[in-house]
Protein backbone atom coordinates (compact mmCIF):
# COMPACT_ATOMS: atom_id res chain seq x y z
CA UNK A 1 0.00 0.00 0.00
CA UNK A 2 1.45 3.39 -0.91
CA UNK A 3 1.55 6.39 1.36
CA UNK A 4 -1.51 8.07 -0.20
CA UNK A 5 -3.65 4.97 0.19
CA UNK A 6 -2.56 4.59 3.81
CA UNK A 7 -3.41 8.21 4.44
CA UNK A 8 -6.86 7.77 2.90
CA UNK A 9 -7.71 4.76 5.07
CA UNK A 10 -6.51 6.55 8.21
CA UNK A 11 -8.50 9.68 7.37
CA UNK A 12 -11.61 7.60 6.69
CA UNK A 13 -11.34 5.91 10.10
CA UNK A 14 -10.83 9.26 11.76
CA UNK A 15 -13.88 10.67 9.98
CA UNK A 16 -16.03 7.76 11.18
CA UNK A 17 -14.96 8.42 14.77
CA UNK A 18 -15.68 12.14 14.52
CA UNK A 19 -19.04 11.54 12.81
CA UNK A 20 -20.04 9.13 15.59
CA UNK A 21 -19.14 11.69 18.24
CA UNK A 22 -21.04 14.43 16.42
CA UNK A 23 -24.11 12.16 16.14
CA UNK A 24 -23.91 11.46 19.87
CA UNK A 25 -24.08 15.15 20.89
CA UNK A 26 -27.80 15.85 20.64
CA UNK A 27 -28.52 18.15 23.58
CA UNK A 28 -29.51 21.72 22.67
CA UNK A 29 -28.65 23.90 25.63
CA UNK A 30 -26.47 26.84 26.58
CA UNK A 31 -23.09 26.04 28.06
CA UNK A 32 -21.00 27.42 30.85
CA UNK A 33 -17.41 28.00 29.78
CA UNK A 34 -14.57 28.82 32.17
CA UNK A 35 -11.34 30.24 30.74
CA UNK A 36 -8.68 30.35 33.41
CA UNK A 37 -4.90 29.97 33.89
CA UNK A 38 -1.95 32.35 33.98
CA UNK A 39 -1.31 32.74 30.26
CA UNK A 40 -2.46 35.60 28.04
CA UNK A 41 -5.67 35.14 26.09
CA UNK A 42 -8.54 34.61 28.52
CA UNK A 43 -10.45 37.86 28.03
CA UNK A 44 -9.66 37.97 24.32
CA UNK A 45 -11.14 34.47 23.97
CA UNK A 46 -14.24 35.64 25.83
CA UNK A 47 -14.63 38.70 23.64
CA UNK A 48 -13.95 36.64 20.52
CA UNK A 49 -16.92 34.50 21.46
CA UNK A 50 -19.07 37.60 21.99
CA UNK A 51 -18.10 38.73 18.46
CA UNK A 52 -19.02 35.29 17.12
CA UNK A 53 -22.39 35.48 18.85
CA UNK A 54 -23.20 39.00 17.64
CA UNK A 55 -22.06 38.03 14.14
CA UNK A 56 -24.89 35.52 14.05
CA UNK A 57 -27.41 38.16 15.05
CA UNK A 58 -27.77 36.97 18.65
CA UNK A 59 -27.78 39.25 21.66
CA UNK A 60 -24.83 39.20 24.05
CA UNK A 61 -23.98 41.13 27.21
CA UNK A 62 -20.65 41.83 28.90
CA UNK A 63 -19.89 42.39 32.57
CA UNK A 64 -16.39 43.57 33.40
CA UNK A 65 -15.21 43.00 36.92
CA UNK A 66 -12.00 44.85 37.84
CA UNK A 67 -11.10 46.52 34.56
CA UNK A 68 -14.22 48.51 33.77
CA UNK A 69 -12.76 51.97 33.85
CA UNK A 70 -9.92 51.41 31.43
CA UNK A 71 -10.02 52.10 27.75
CA UNK A 72 -11.18 48.86 26.13
CA UNK A 73 -11.03 48.22 22.38
CA UNK A 74 -13.66 45.51 22.51
CA UNK A 75 -16.06 47.78 24.35
CA UNK A 76 -15.55 50.58 21.82
CA UNK A 77 -16.48 48.16 19.06
CA UNK A 78 -19.16 46.00 20.62
CA UNK A 79 -21.22 48.82 22.13
CA UNK A 80 -21.67 50.12 18.59
CA UNK A 81 -23.22 46.72 17.84
CA UNK A 82 -25.73 46.96 20.65
CA UNK A 83 -23.87 44.90 23.25
CA UNK A 84 -24.56 46.30 26.73
CA UNK A 85 -21.58 46.58 29.07
CA UNK A 86 -21.82 46.66 32.85
CA UNK A 87 -18.55 47.83 34.33
CA UNK A 88 -17.12 48.34 37.76
CA UNK A 89 -17.72 51.95 38.70
CA UNK A 90 -14.54 52.43 40.72
CA UNK A 91 -10.95 51.32 40.61
CA UNK A 92 -9.68 48.23 42.30
CA UNK A 93 -7.62 46.95 45.19
CA UNK A 94 -4.15 47.75 43.94
CA UNK A 95 -5.28 51.29 43.11
CA UNK A 96 -7.67 52.02 45.93
CA UNK A 97 -6.41 49.58 48.59
CA UNK A 98 -9.86 49.88 50.08
CA UNK A 99 -11.51 46.52 50.48
CA UNK A 100 -14.92 47.88 51.45
CA UNK A 101 -15.04 50.16 48.42
CA UNK A 102 -14.04 47.23 46.20
CA UNK A 103 -16.81 45.07 47.61
CA UNK A 104 -19.36 47.86 47.10
CA UNK A 105 -18.24 48.28 43.48
CA UNK A 106 -18.32 44.51 42.88
CA UNK A 107 -21.78 44.24 44.39
CA UNK A 108 -23.11 47.05 42.22
CA UNK A 109 -21.91 45.50 38.97
CA UNK A 110 -23.06 42.06 40.13
CA UNK A 111 -26.63 43.42 40.39
CA UNK A 112 -26.45 44.15 36.66
CA UNK A 113 -24.92 40.75 35.95
CA UNK A 114 -27.88 39.09 37.67
CA UNK A 115 -30.29 40.92 35.37
CA UNK A 116 -28.44 39.60 32.29
CA UNK A 117 -28.33 36.10 33.76
CA UNK A 118 -32.09 36.19 34.20
CA UNK A 119 -32.95 37.39 30.73
CA UNK A 120 -33.43 34.72 28.04
CA UNK A 121 -33.00 37.27 25.25
CA UNK A 122 -29.24 37.09 25.87
CA UNK A 123 -27.72 34.17 24.01
CA UNK A 124 -24.38 34.78 25.72
CA UNK A 125 -23.19 36.61 28.84
CA UNK A 126 -19.47 37.26 29.36
CA UNK A 127 -18.42 37.69 32.99
CA UNK A 128 -14.88 38.96 32.48
CA UNK A 129 -12.56 38.54 35.50
CA UNK A 130 -15.33 37.14 37.71
CA UNK A 131 -12.94 34.55 39.19
CA UNK A 132 -11.26 37.14 41.42
CA UNK A 133 -14.57 38.20 42.97
CA UNK A 134 -14.98 34.67 44.28
CA UNK A 135 -11.30 34.12 45.06
CA UNK A 136 -11.26 37.24 47.27
CA UNK A 137 -14.77 36.68 48.68
CA UNK A 138 -15.92 40.00 47.25
CA UNK A 139 -19.22 38.48 46.18
CA UNK A 140 -21.36 35.86 47.97
CA UNK A 141 -20.24 32.57 46.46
CA UNK A 142 -23.54 30.71 46.88
CA UNK A 143 -25.50 33.49 45.25
CA UNK A 144 -23.13 33.73 42.28
CA UNK A 145 -23.10 29.97 41.74
CA UNK A 146 -26.90 29.83 41.98
CA UNK A 147 -27.33 32.65 39.44
CA UNK A 148 -25.00 30.85 37.03
CA UNK A 149 -26.82 27.57 37.52
CA UNK A 150 -30.35 28.97 37.23
CA UNK A 151 -29.78 31.06 34.10
CA UNK A 152 -32.10 30.48 31.10
CA UNK A 153 -31.60 27.05 29.54
CA UNK A 154 -30.44 28.29 26.14
CA UNK A 155 -28.15 30.98 27.52
CA UNK A 156 -24.40 30.43 27.50
CA UNK A 157 -22.09 32.08 30.00
CA UNK A 158 -18.34 32.63 29.95
CA UNK A 159 -16.31 33.23 33.10
CA UNK A 160 -12.73 34.42 32.71
CA UNK A 161 -9.87 35.10 35.10
CA UNK A 162 -7.01 33.40 36.85
CA UNK A 163 -7.48 30.89 39.64
CA UNK A 164 -11.09 29.80 39.02
CA UNK A 165 -12.31 28.16 42.23
CA UNK A 166 -13.11 24.45 42.09
CA UNK A 167 -16.87 25.05 42.26
CA UNK A 168 -16.71 27.04 39.02
CA UNK A 169 -14.63 24.36 37.31
CA UNK A 170 -17.00 21.64 38.43
CA UNK A 171 -20.14 23.46 37.40
CA UNK A 172 -18.82 24.44 33.96
CA UNK A 173 -19.43 22.35 30.84
CA UNK A 174 -16.15 23.42 29.26
CA UNK A 175 -13.02 24.50 31.12
CA UNK A 176 -9.89 25.72 29.40
CA UNK A 177 -6.70 26.61 31.18
CA UNK A 178 -4.38 28.95 29.31
CA UNK A 179 -0.82 28.22 30.25
CA UNK A 180 1.84 30.91 30.47
CA UNK A 181 4.79 29.83 28.36
CA UNK A 182 6.20 33.34 28.11
CA UNK A 183 4.91 36.90 27.96
CA UNK A 184 6.41 39.93 26.22
CA UNK A 185 5.90 42.08 29.32
CA UNK A 186 8.46 40.01 31.20
CA UNK A 187 11.02 40.91 28.53
CA UNK A 188 10.30 44.59 29.17
CA UNK A 189 7.95 45.20 26.23
CA UNK A 190 5.15 47.59 27.14
CA UNK A 191 1.50 46.50 26.94
CA UNK A 192 0.26 47.40 23.46
CA UNK A 193 -2.95 49.25 22.68
CA UNK A 194 -4.92 47.13 20.22
CA UNK A 195 -3.19 43.95 21.39
CA UNK A 196 -3.30 43.94 25.18
CA UNK A 197 -6.38 46.10 25.61
P1 LIG B 1 -6.02 39.29 27.45
O1 LIG B 1 -6.97 40.39 27.91
O2 LIG B 1 -4.90 39.87 26.66
O3 LIG B 1 -6.74 38.14 26.79
P2 LIG B 1 -5.95 37.78 29.86
O4 LIG B 1 -7.38 38.09 30.03
O5 LIG B 1 -5.58 36.35 29.62
O6 LIG B 1 -5.32 38.70 28.75
P3 LIG B 1 -5.42 39.08 32.40
O7 LIG B 1 -4.87 38.36 33.57
O8 LIG B 1 -6.85 39.48 32.41
O9 LIG B 1 -5.09 38.20 31.12
O10 LIG B 1 -4.49 40.33 32.17
C1 LIG B 1 -4.76 41.29 31.22
C2 LIG B 1 -3.52 42.04 30.84
O11 LIG B 1 -2.34 41.47 31.40
C3 LIG B 1 -3.26 42.04 29.34
O12 LIG B 1 -2.70 43.26 29.01
C4 LIG B 1 -2.31 40.91 29.13
O13 LIG B 1 -1.47 41.07 27.99
C5 LIG B 1 -1.51 40.95 30.39
N1 LIG B 1 -1.10 39.58 30.74
C6 LIG B 1 -1.83 38.46 30.60
N2 LIG B 1 -1.14 37.37 30.97
C7 LIG B 1 0.07 37.82 31.37
C8 LIG B 1 1.28 37.18 31.86
N3 LIG B 1 1.33 35.87 31.99
N4 LIG B 1 2.33 38.00 32.16
C9 LIG B 1 2.27 39.33 32.01
N5 LIG B 1 1.18 39.98 31.56
C10 LIG B 1 0.08 39.25 31.23
MG1 LIG C 1 -8.49 39.08 31.35
UniProtKB/TrEMBL annotation:
It comes from the Bacteria. Its EC number is 2.5.1.17. Transmembrane segments: none annotated. It is an enzyme of class 2 (transferase). Its main location: cytoplasm. GO terms for molecular function: ATP binding; corrinoid adenosyltransferase activity. Pathway: Cofactor biosynthesis; adenosylcobalamin biosynthesis; adenosylcobalamin from cob(II)yrinate a,c-diamide: step 2/7. It catalyses: 2 cob(II)alamin + reduced [electron-transfer flavoprotein] + 2 ATP = 2 adenosylcob(III)alamin + 2 triphosphate + oxidized [electron-transfer flavoprotein] + 3 H(+); 2 cob(II)yrinate a,c diamide + reduced [electron-transfer flavoprotein] + 2 ATP = 2 adenosylcob(III)yrinate a,c-diamide + 2 triphosphate + oxidized [electron-transfer flavoprotein] + 3 H(+). Keywords: ATP-binding, Cobalamin biosynthesis, Cytoplasm, Nucleotide-binding, Porphyrin biosynthesis, Transferase. It is found in: Cytoplasm. GO terms for cellular component: cytoplasm. Pfam families: CobA_CobO_BtuR (PF02572). InterPro entries: CblAdoTrfase_CobA, P-loop_NTPase. GO terms for biological process: cobalamin biosynthetic process; porphyrin-containing compound biosynthetic process. PANTHER family: CORRINOID ADENOSYLTRANSFERASE. Belongs to the Cob(I)alamin adenosyltransferase family. Required for both de novo synthesis of the corrin ring for the assimilation of exogenous corrinoids. Participates in the adenosylation of a variety of incomplete and complete corrinoids. NCBIfam families: cobA (TIGR00708), PRK05986.1 (NF004637). This is Corrinoid adenosyltransferase. It comes from Pleionea litopenaei.
Amino acid sequence: MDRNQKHKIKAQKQKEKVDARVAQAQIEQGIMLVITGNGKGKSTAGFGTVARCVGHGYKAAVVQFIKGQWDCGERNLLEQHGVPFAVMGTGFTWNTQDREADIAAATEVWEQAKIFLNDPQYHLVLLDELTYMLGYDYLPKDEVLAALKNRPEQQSVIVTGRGAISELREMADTVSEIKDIKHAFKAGIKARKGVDW
